[in-house]
DNA sequence: TTGAAAGCGCTAACAC
DNA sequence: GTGTTAGCGCTTTCAA
């Protein structure tokens, strides 16, 4: 089957291919009659624009690169869901790349995006990412760049995040208001800004309510379910005194709950538990897990909208807008001592 | 900043741009010395290949379109995760499109893929999709097309699915072997092939183990958690006699469990429960939910591998390979009467 | 082993 | 309102 180009349509109608091109692009200078004839012929010949040729010539691909750590994480797949919906409705397509939390793959992704001449890049960095030269490169090439959730602190670019500090604060505040006094916090041992912020919120909430910060109650590790269990086991072994746990993630909180239940500790009467992320299982487990919602879907839509705003008005580039969404406290049974 | 092309590299070195192109593509006829010089210069000038130009000329984009109903559904995001991983490792990139279960958007997605001259399309159809003209068009244009999970029955193309019939059979068989005799099955009232298959598996398992099919035990509705609850409420109201439930989805099964627990019915002693899909919450709820795993990740990887196989050997196109994955029975507490 | 030259299908400046 | 023309940056055939 021969490939149909605008030249074929032009020959059919005895006009030139540039007229055809203009007609198809709804150029104002073309007569209605010609437009109709061209469209009818295009339809009949089963013509389909070649976006590659169009992109090469015009310098616009209408594709934006979206880089995420992993679609296995519900949060990221929801953000991508939101981004794709909005961008798609605005004539953009999504080139997807996963870093799998590897710096090397993240660099490859950026490289691919650059070679593919995407019209913009929306990214959330991997946990491994410390150097940011590959992002600097994007800026140098004047390709619009936005971050969401996990952002490199050294860069002054538009972003959408949630206020992790506030999330940490309201989670801790909630526990305090429920009457808990010795609140254990599990955080990540790596220097990841979102986790550091949650920790900072935790500490400020304690101070704000005149509780003192006890370094023994700050446990550094990772956010796996297994680590949550381990923390409780070790706390028991060492005789650590605590009456609530604020875990950096729901999975960690889940491990905490499982181990507490195994030790026949009553939740929330003896120990209160709150997680972070509002994973879908939280409302289904027993007891239900209190948590902080991160507004994944909103974040996806907002970052897409911010992108569209950015390219419409690039005078904004000197003052990159940094949207910070409010985390939402979700109180369920695991921390609801007062009922 | 001026854009660097192979012409710039050529000028730097006093050779022609076609030699540069060959050097960069590791053409065998180019001397090692030239290759090294070219690469060094490319690096120094910060050259980056323009994939758009390359695609236009070569007719290959190294992009494949992936069309899914919605990334909000964990199953699909896991499949995409698997596809992206494998394709990425093989030099392909993913153009992502969501149909949101709408036929119109599905058509738009296919149209975009065709215009973008993707090297292949991997799709899972929307629940609305009945006509398939838009897929016929892909085949006509000789663009490789593969389906996974939800496939149009009228088309003879490569696909990867799981055996839903077998899933229904082994779920039911498991309940029977645990000693349950009056097994209630919740299915969808719409004619969706995967659900019909699960129902067929359920019925055949009953027959195979000499239990008779009782139409009163087959409840038609939807797979929401709320419907699961409703079924148990109505069963109680009508005095329906049953000792196990096989629900078409985990969320439905969850509703069933919640309502049973509310009625103080012991799970699994009095009533056994099994779901379908292996949602992440299944292992975290109390009691743990038995289920059928759909191998989402494997499905993604397999469909990607099948795609690669297909394009390597297009003689296969006359006998499209249709891979059917085995569902996996996951026994947890909710159905484990015998321990 | 390298160079010359054509052209992929389109957009857009300029001409009439 | 439509035609002419020149590329976008690369791959690839043919020639030397």
Automatic annotation (TrEMBL), chains A, B:
Residues 4-58 form the HTH lacI-type domain. CDD domains: HTH_LacI, PBP1_LacI_sugar_binding-like. PROSITE patterns: HTH_LACI_2 (PS50932). Keywords: DNA-binding, Transcription, Transcription regulation. GO terms for molecular function: DNA-binding transcription factor activity; transcription cis-regulatory region binding. SMART domains: HTH_LACI. This is LacI family transcriptional regulator. It comes from Arcticibacter svalbardensis MN12-7.
